[in-house]
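Appendix B. Raw example, untouched.
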Amino acid sequence: MADTDNRLLMLIDDEPAQSRLITALASREGWRTIVARDAETAIAQLGTRQGMQLSAIILDQWVPGDGACELIAELKSRRPALPILMLTSSTSPLLAVEAMRAGASDYLVKPVAPDRLMQALRAATTRETPRDELAPLTEKLLSNPDFESMIGAAPTFRKALAVAAKAARGHGPILIEGESGTGKEMLVRAMHAASPRAKMPLRIVNIAGLPANSIESVLFGHEKGAFAGAFDRQIGAIQHCDGATLAIDEIDRLPESVQVRLLEALQKGGVRPIGASHSFRVDVRLIVASNLPLRELVDGGVFMPELQEALSSVCVQLPPLRERHGDIAALARFFLARIGEQPGLRELGITDGALSLLTAYDWPGNVRQLQAVLFRAAVFCDGDALTADDFPQLLDILGTDQSTASSTAHQANHGVMLYTADGNLRPLEEIEADVIRLAIGLYRGRMTEVARRLGIGRSTLYRKLSELGIDNAA
């Protein structure tokens, strides 16, 4: 890799405005950028002295000349080790498959957030496993998620679903906390689908994907001439969602000035656009998500305690994947089934060795990263099932010694551990509780099916849930 203070990026793009934006974003992290307007210029540039210093390429799908995938293949044939990122407005899985098979390292969907672009460049030029690789695409695999799509038997996860399922039937604000990639957006969609406003639209606004100076306008709207550049009147997301549901993602990044306005809107049930002389009454169901605990931000003086209190009358806390390793096998099989439904792909199995590897990893990008890694492996798999060799980056990180992974995988594959760490049998009550939790997760909270599979009546099942202190989302 080139020196981090002198990295050179080639952008293949014929849109001047987008070229200037990407050049400016890349320069913030020390990248220099050269722009090629077409395929012929890009290929010619590779052979120059400057071209030999390239650290990465970003290719817009709509460059004139050769098709994007053909151009990727040509560039890779000339410079096999050079990372290539495709920039596109399409979310087609088939295009992603073709681009990756041609040699693309990543697939960025426009409009791409600055953080996402920088993360993709960092991941492409280091040996780290990408945390959010293919995130916008893989999230499309679950286009209409509901609570049955939320796979997992871990007690903390089932408790979170139980809280969310109950809260979904209400009308007040809901706060979802959890690390990036834990499934907050998927849970938002499931809650909306189970809410009294399910037939009304759901709008999601991601604070991290907005320029800081436009957040207030996006949420509250503005009148014509309210500020420089306000050439037309704009209705804000809050007013637009009157009678419907608005989800604000990464609320922890909300500027303090906008926090004040959001609190006022919640307290008064109205919204006043920038430059307007009066407010508009609105009836909005608000769901907010935060990567960081808002209480910690309040303690740090960066989040208003009054707003935190107003938002968190119901708080759903999603656990990270490293705290629910026992769910990885079920998640992997579920994702592979969905991936196999996509154009250009097929349903694959997965071996115990591959599950051992997946279970041994800590997954800093959580469920989203697991899904993306499985997608990439499925694209390049030639067999009928994924093996450990289909995850070379994980093998590099964890090493080939799978003694620890095999032990952990036993728990993931079989669901229940019979022995304690010192080799003695676990108490029967603990084993029984784990079996019931496993069944609840496996059959997605369908308690009649859980009882039938366990060979007991529903009344007996609910009695055991009470006796063993097991939460469920049924």
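End of appendix B.
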